[in-house]
Amino acid sequence: MESTIHMENIIKRYYIGKPNELQILNGISLDINDGEFVSIVGESGSGKSTLMNIIGVLDRQTEGGYFLDGIDVNKMSDDMRSNVRNEKIGFVFQNFNLLPRATALKNVMIPLMYGKKKQKDAKERAMEMLEMVGMADRAKHKPNELSGGQKQRVAIARAMINNPSIILADEPTGALDSKTGHMVMDIFHKLHEEQGKTIVLITHSQELASETQRIITLSDGNIIKVKAGEEDAI
Fold first, then answer.
1. In CA terms, which of 19, 38, 104, 205 is 20 to 30 Å from 1?
2. Which has more pLDDT, 45 or 234?
3. Class for domain 34-60+78-233, per CATH?
4. Between 166 and 116, residue with greater pLDDT
């Protein structure tokens, strides 16, 4: 199976004034295959969000190689990196990151405004995405009129608007109760099973991680364990 994400010896350091430096990732080597649903777990401070930011082309590693669909991310221009983030990767965050004054429909349409391809039928496409996550009847509602679970479903619709091949979800259920969190996970399973999306779930929850095909455990910037989740153990 082809690797969508291939990382070799990724090191990330932050410099906090000479001679101080903080090394967050200590040589991470990782392959995530096309169409795979994996989770990256670890305690706070383990490096999982730093790793996600590098996978998502939001940040650059200090050392090491990162190839996305066979392309060397290090050699991409800033414009190319921006296009990759907008068209190839859909982001879902713990705190939803919705614009408070925009309706659900307008929030979902936002990525289309930054894409190279101007979408003529942006409104229709956004409504399709809201329909997919069961939120079409809330299209005209603003975030303060929605529950946490509804906001996250809108955020997932927004992440899917450009039909990305990869979804990066950073603690997507962290602000939700358990029942709502499982409803959100059901949407990710549907996107994985029915549309073949590659999904990377960042979580501290072993219970949610166990629903994925593979669990990658980080501790102090190192991968300490990789094991199959329940989805592949059935």
1. 205
2. 45
3. alpha beta
4. 166
User: Helix 148-160 and helix 104-114: axis angle, to 10°?
Assistant: 30
Name the pTM for this structure: 0.90
- pLDDT value at position 138? 96
3-state secondary structure the chain: CCEEEEEEEEEEEEECCCCCEEEEEEEEEEEEECCCEEEEECCCCCCHHHHHHHHCCCCCCCEEEEEECCEEHHHCCHHHHHHHHHHCEEEEECCCCCCCCCCHHHHHHHHHHHCCCCCCCHHHHHHHHHHHCCCHHHCCCCHHHCCHHHHHHHHHHHHHCCCCCEEEEECCCCCCCHHHHHHHHHHHHHHHHHHCCEEEEEECCHHHHCCCCEEEEEECCEEEEEEECHHHHC
What CA–CA distance (Å, rounded) separates 142 from 226? 41
Cα 232 to Cα 5, 181, 192: the distances in Å are 20, 21, 13
The pLDDT value given to residue 21: 85
Yes or no: say if 4 and 32 are a contact pair by the CB < 8 Å rule. yes
Given a cut of 50, whether residue 147 has pLDDT beyond it is yes
- The CA-based angle 54-99-155, given to 5 degrees, is 55
